[in-house]
Amino acid sequence: MGLREIAVLLGLAVAAGAMAPALVKARLSDSASPAKAASPTAAAETGTVALHAASHGHFYADAVIEGRTLRMVVDTGASLCALPEEDAERLGLRLRPGDFTREVSTANGLLRVAPVRLGSVQIGSIVVRDVEAVVVPRGRLGTGLLGMSFLKRLRDFSIAGGRLTLRG
Q1: What is the pLDDT of residue 1?
Q2: C-alpha distances in Å from residue 26, one per residue of 105, 118, 132
Q3: Any idea what DSSP says for residue 101?
Q4: Residue 61 pLDDT exceeds 60
Q5: Coil, helix or strand for 91?
Q6: How many other C-beta atoms can be found within 10 angstroms of the C-beta atom of residue 162?
Q7: pLDDT band (50, 70, 90) for residue 70
Q8: Which carries the bigger pLDDT value, residue 119 or residue 13?
Q9: Alpha-carbon torsion angle 102, 6, 74, 159, nearest 10
Q10: Sign of the torsion formed by the C-alpha atoms of 114, 156, 62 and 105
Q11: What is the side-by-side order of every strand in the sheet holding 163-167?
């Protein structure tokens, strides 16, 4: 399953109401210390970050989540941020099979994801707190997606001349 398929399935799932507002709080191991959660409507901390397009046109960001850096694709077509289960484990998120409670429909069939909230997501000088996300089961997503649950909390973002500018 490719990145575009995951982005489309997440967008469709949210639009269809498959991602209910109640999210499970993922358990963090002792090695990960979650940031104090702010209100979901809190604005991003100020700053400006410019990302340059990769040779194939995608924008990648090094996101600092729960104190660890993950490479993510910026995806305006994804309603939520999405993490591969492998990356979630690196963050200290310990998921059980029962945490994968939401079912989304893809071209390849149904996929269960685990809804979570991330204490903070930082791209350069921009920090957004209490970010809604999902964890995709092991082997189903190669790179995390920095979706609209992060981007819509920014003051502004724009693409021009092969550069994506984020303004917190």
Answers
A1: 47
A2: 23, 9, 11
A3: -
A4: yes
A5: coil
A6: 11
A7: very high
A8: 119
A9: -120
A10: positive
A11: 48-52, 163-167, 156-160
Please check whether residue 118 is in contact with residue 149, taking contact to mean a CB–CB distance below 8 angstroms: no
Task: Please name the amino acid found at residue 160.
Answer: A
CB atoms inside a 10 Å sphere around CB 30: 6
- Kindly state the tokens that stand for 112: 């269960």
**Amino acid identity of 100?**
F
- Six token digits for residue 45: 């901390």
Cα separations in angstroms, 3 against 92, 130, 144: 23, 24, 9
**Helix or strand (DSSP H, E) at 157:** strand 156-160
Quick check: 38 pLDDT over 90?
no
Q: What is the pLDDT of residue 44?
A: 61
Domains and CATH numbers, the chain: 3-28+46-167 (2.40.70.10)
